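Incident log, structure service

09:12 report received: a user says their structure output differs between two submissions of the same chain.
09:20 pulled the input from the user's history:
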Amino acid sequence: MIHPLIAFERACAAINPRGILCDANLVGIYPHEGVDPALLAACLVSSLGVMMRELVGIANLGQGALKTNPAYLARMLVPDLRAASSRELAALGSAFQAARQAAFPSLLDGEPDPVWRALDDAVLALLGPGAPDGARLRAAACELVSARLAKARA
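09:34 re-ran on a clean worker, output below:
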């Protein structure tokens, strides 16, 4: 997979089936054996992924850009896809396929389209019964992004 080194408010992770080499602006991500890269990408572009990126990245670039080099991304917490049931993985795959047809949302624009909310729900289902509510998670992620960008403007 490929993840941008620098991010603003949108989530982005690309599947890299041809193994395109990364340069100074892209980070290569190599999932553990047995983990489908598309499903890991789904977790990274979800609101949970955005929140994790905000927590591990460093906002020391111009205009509030967030730097997420490989060492920072390695500290991100994501659901263990190897422990998920086949039903959960299928639901995540379906939700990600639908989300891939839609534009990457900005959490700053309010609640995302239903397909992106469904992706969040599929990712959160992997966390089990104690998982946070999707709307509350999106609000927390939005608050982190907003605070980072506001600090840059100040």
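09:41 both user submissions now match this output. Likely a transient worker issue. Closing.
09:42 reviewer note: The chain is about 45% helix and 5% strand. Residues 2-153 form one domain.
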